[in-house]
Each structure stands twice: as C-alpha cells, then as structure tokens.
Amino acid sequence: MNVHTARSLIIAVLFTGYLSAQGIAVQPRYADLSLSSLFSSGWSSAAAEELLALQGGAHDPNKRGFTVQNVELSLMGAVDPFLRGEAHLIFQIDAQGESIFELEEAFLTTQTLPFGLQVKAGTYFTEFGRLNPQHPHSWSYVDQPVINTRMFGGDGLRGPGVRVAWLSPLPWYAELFLGLQNANGETAVSFLNSPEEDRFLGRPLVDRELESMADLLRSARWLNSLSIGEETTVNLGVSALWGPNRTGEEGKTAIYGGDLYLKWQPLANDQGWPFVALQGELMHRNYLAADSSEPFIGNPQTLTDIGGYLQVQWGLKRGWVAGMRYESATGSGKDGDDPLRDQRTRVAGNLTYYPSEFSKVRLQLNLDSARFLDQDNAWGLWLQYEFLLGRHAGHKF
Amino acid sequence: MKVFNAQALLMGILILLTAGPAAGKKLQIVTTTTDLKAIAQAVGGAYVSVNSISSGRQDPHFIDAKPSYMLKLRKADLFIRIGLELEQGWERLILEGSRNRSILLGSRGHLDASAGIRRLEVPTGALDRSMGDVHPLGNPHYWLDPYNARIIAGTIARRLGELDPEHEDEYARSAASFGRQVDIAMFGSALQEGEDSEGLWQRQHDGNLDPGFGGQSDTGEARGWQAKMAPFRGVKVVTYHRSWSYFLERFGLVAAGELEAKPGISPSPGHLKNLIETMRAQQVPIIIVASFKGDKAPNLVASKTGATVVKVPYSVGGNEQAGDYIAMMDQLVTRISTALTRSSL
C-alpha cells in the first residue's frame, strides 16, 4: 500500500470514528477503532549488528536509544448478522530510521455456524501456541521470546488463509483448530520464506511453485481449558505445523509445540489485581532439507531446533506487575556461530505499572548468554511505554 | 439417496437442532451478574434453570473472558446482561467463544436488562478518557435501586414469555409477585393489599412520604427499607467508586465525593487529602465500599475523619447473608442505616 492510500484510509477511518462518537442515544458501533502505540528506550552492552541479532523480533527494542516498537491501528466490528471483521495495520520506524507500514491482519470470522464451528478467513496470525497470535501490546515483556523469533521470524507466523475452529461438546473446554495458509512470504519463516532470501539456516534456497496441498502451510491446534476452583484456570495446548521449505522440491518443515497458561486471581479482586500468571511454551522444529549439493554440517538431511520459555507474572497490587522469564534455545548440526541456531539463554526481569487500562510503563532487564556474541554475555535495560486510544477489544484468556 | 432428499434431511436436522426448547425442558438462562440471576430465578421459577457468570463476590466490570464461561453459555437459551457497557470488556469474547448463535447480540436470546430503566449520570457534552472511565450510556449500577429490580423483573418476564409462550402468564404473575415482595420490603406491611405502589415509590423518591410510613406494624414485623432510611434523607456520604448513585438517589442520600478522583482511577494521595478536608468540613459520617475493594484507602480516610467504613456486598452472593435480591438489599439498608445511626458525626 502506498503512503497516499494509507493516508486516505486513515482519514476515512478517523472520520468514521468521529461520526460514531456523535449522538449518545443511538450510539452506532459500525467499527470500533483503536490505536495502540508502543515505544521503548534503553541501552544494551551489545551494539548494532549484535544487538539486532539478540533482539531479533521485529517489535523488540533493538537499538541503543529509542525504538518505535509498534503503532497499530485496529478496526473491528460486526459486518452483518453473520460475520465479524477485524483489521490491524501497523506502522513502525526501524533501527535504520526507515518508516514501515504493514497489513498485519485483516480477517473475517463467522458468527452463526452450527455445531460449535467457526471459520476465519483473510490474513491472520497462525494460532500456534500462546504468544504467536498475540499482538505486541498484550505481551508481558518488551520483546518476544527467542524461540518465537527463531521459528517464526521477527513478525510472527502469519499469512493469508482459512481456518476452521470447532468447540467440542466435551464436558471441559476443548477447541480444535485446523488451518491452511500460504507458506510463502517474509512472515512464513521456516517454510517458503520471502523470495528475497537466498539462504536460510545456512542453506541455499530455490524457488518453488504451489503444486498441491502439501505446498501450503497446514496447522493444527488443540486447546484445553480447565478450572481449578473459581479462582484458577489452566489452559493447555498442543500445536503443529507442516509445510514446505525452499531447500528443494522435497524440502519440508514440521514444527510442534506445547503451551501452558495458568492464572490465579481471587474473586474479590481490585480491577484484576492481585494475580499470578504462569506461562510457558516449548517448540521443536525439524527442517528436512532436500538433496542438495551443499549438505548441512553434521547431519546432512535434518536440522533440529528446540527451545522454549517459562515466565511468571505477579500482579502485586492494583496497577503493578512484576515478572521473570527464563528462555533457552538451541539447534543441532550448527553451521558456525549462527545467531538463529546457537545455544542461547536469556533471563529477563521486569516491573510494569499501569496508570489505567490504557497506558503502561515497563522497565525490563535482560541478561543474555549466547555463543555468537563476542563476549558470550550481554545485558540490556529497556524502558517501555504505551498508550491506547479508542475502543480496544478485550483480551482472550 | 437423491441430492434433493439429502438436502431435505439436512434441513430437517437443522430445524430440529435449532428449534426452541422442547416441552418439559427448562429454559437455560445465563446472566452476567448474580442480581440478574436472582431476579430471573424469581420470575422463571420451575420453568428455568439460571446460571450467572459473575459470582457476586467480584467486580463485574473486570472479569476475565475465561473459557469456562463460554462453556456455561454453550447451551443457553437466554443471556441476560446489565448493559450500559458494564460488561463490555468481556461480553463479546464469551458470547463468540460459546459458539451459541441463539444468544448473540440482536437475537431473541440476548436480553439487555437496562431497557426501561431511568438512567443516572448519562454524560452530556464532550466526553473523553481524561475524565476517567465514564460510562457513556450512563451509570450501569442501576440494580442497587430496589425500584429498578421491579422493572428488571418485568423485562425478564416479557422476554421469557416470548421464548416460552406456553407459560407467558405465569412469568407475568411471578414478576408481579416479585415486585410485590420488593414493595413490602420497601414499605413494610403498612402497604395495603391492592394499593397502588407506583404512587408510593414516586412520593418516596420525591421525599413526599411520611418518614414513618411503613414503620413498626401492628404485629411487630420488621420495618420497611423506606422507614429505616427516611431519617437520613439529605445526609452526605462518600463512596469508593461511583457505583452507589442509584442507591443514594433512591433514599435521598447525597454523595459528597468518591475515594477515586475519577472513575476507575486509583485513589491518589493528593485527592484523598482534599477529600479528607471536605469530609471534615461537611462531617460526612460514612464511607460506602463494595466488598471486593481494597481496605487501605477507605481505612486511611476513616482514621483521619472519624467516618465509619461500611463495607457491603453490592451484588447477590457478595456474602453469605446476601442470598437473594431482597436479602442483599435488606443487608445494605440495615448496615448503612445502622452505621448512620451510630455515627457520632
């Protein structure tokens, strides 16, 4: 989308918002409009290239000084009695100072299908694990987990496609998601990637055509939720992805993951506080290469990566949350000191203050240990701040 | 099987699956709050089975859209909300997550109980978030005026009658009978059989009722809410959040301020300091606080002003004594009037 189109769109959107703000009695809600703006500033002992590799998420603070992490315009509402629509447009200024505009998500969801079914179609974040479908605004840390960056690239796994969700009639909450999405593009890292990439994981890439279903990205997720009394809820999920990769016609990738989210919150809480939330994900990737003149070092056919994170957020008193996160990631058959496959650990601690539901300030300390770093270790201290305008949708549990 | 027959069969199955409740089956109602549950239970009686999302011990503004709530809604025939955006942070998520299309907004299975309520504090003029969390459609805590409970009962009865026409008259009778119980609780047994209570509510609201009306009855029965609260008409009180406006308005109490400087914003030391001065100057006797709110700010202000903190449930189920709507309101009236009587301010 060029700048002119983007500007016209924004003017149209703001005008709609202005109109919908008029007249209390009728209060049309044709589209809820919101803007989430996320910034950070800070310092790391690693500089420039090393820092970009350490903070590989496209919304991570990745520069000494100031980072515009994510400015996201969201529109959502009922399309008609049968469909809901949602769109998220993001603006950023990258580490080089270049402006970026992206269509992050735009999709419809059906509202009236029978038998517990729901279809989502458009372009959207793949429902893999807990963090991938979440927008940066709802993360508990200033940056995305290392394993997410390694598996799904800086922007998270997303793309055009369709998925069916089925809420099963089982006596506990059990939902099954099955999806098909394009496997190409810069937001389909681990699969066909962007055509501009000529190497991935040290391997040369070739162009591939879509010839069968096997050339699409297939996803599956099974989410379960259980209540332990009235104050504790546990979500347990398993997810899988299968798709092609560009090492050759036979190249394919499979990623499996498990995720856990446990939250305790007393019934008599003060606007949501206090609470304790435990969240963790584990992911495993098999990157099966096609026969090639350039075999991998170590294992010539399969590259295996594994990693995960475990974090705990403690809502101390109204407005205040303290958090700790431990992460580890590694890969087999490494090709030198590859920042995307190296043995790596990160410990992060943070403290967040929410003056209201619509703003926050967060201070986070990262302690990194990674083989690709000159010093093997690095630290980073980041101050993040956010404001939200408009009607922001509630968060999924 | 021919394609046509397969289609007919499919349509048949769909009709069966989407048809209303079969005879003898209870209507499944899910309400957002326990107050609505209590009223819906009183109106629906044996023909309904009612569940509430909120437990009554929590703040209904701030509820996580837990998957377990979606399960509660999966088989519901009727969803009843307070409305006026009280549930806006979580309602849509659980409705959509339930995959129950018969209770989506705009369908017959979705009922907004605020219909017919005279709203308080509907903002006029410009409204923005620098004013805090102001509800643009007006204050949503209307269930705390017992008169509104009668209106809610009528609203629910009409919708139940539409969903289950066979028992329409019974729902109307139950709603009237619930209304009568509220009338008696309000005005005591002085209320004559068949007397027009609408007029009494209006006179009471306007302050034109004899303060002793509904006092001690001949048989020594308990006094009505009106008689208990009448001596305190015009008394100034402070509340934590602006959730008591309907209660205060009903009984003629006057809000001298809130612990929150702005709705939904944590009490700040600067604001509390000013509030303490106001309360001392105006000799405010009590601070009304919902049971799920923190004690720190109320206790601090109480210790500096000599006011009494009255921590009360503001929903059915908020504590063990608040078992149904009348018991909840009875407890509110009793505890607030007792605190006002005892206060030396």
Overview of the molecule:
- The complex is a heterodimer of chains A (397) and B (345).
- Chain A has helices at residues 3-21, 48-54, 146-152; strands spanning 32-44, 65-78, 83-93, 99-110, 117-125, 158-167, 173-181, 199-200, 203-204, 217-228, 232-244, 252-264, 275-288, 302-317, 320-331, 344-356, 359-370, 377-390.
- In chain A, strand 8 (199-200) and strand 9 form a beta hairpin.
- Chain A has a 16-stranded antiparallel β-barrel with strand order 1-2-3-4-5-6-7-10-11-12-13-14-15-16-17-18. Chain A has a two-stranded antiparallel sheet with strand order 8-9.
- Chain A has 397 residues and is mainly beta.
- Chain A has a single domain (31-390), classed as Porin, CATH 2.40.160.
- Chain A has 3 helices and 18 strands.
- Chain B is of the alpha/beta class and 345 residues long.
- Chain B has a domain at 225-342: 3-Layer(aba) Sandwich (Rossmann fold), CATH 3.40.50.1980.
- Chain B is 42% helix and 10% strand.
- Chain B is built from 12 helices and 8 strands.
- In chain B, the strands form 2 sheets. Chain B has a 4-stranded parallel sheet, covered by helices on one side. In chain B, strands 6-5-7-8 form a 4-stranded parallel sheet, sandwiched between helices.
- Chain B is globular, with a radius of gyration of 22 Å.
- The N and C termini of chain B lie far apart (85 Å).
- Mean pLDDT of chain B is 90; it is low at 16-21.
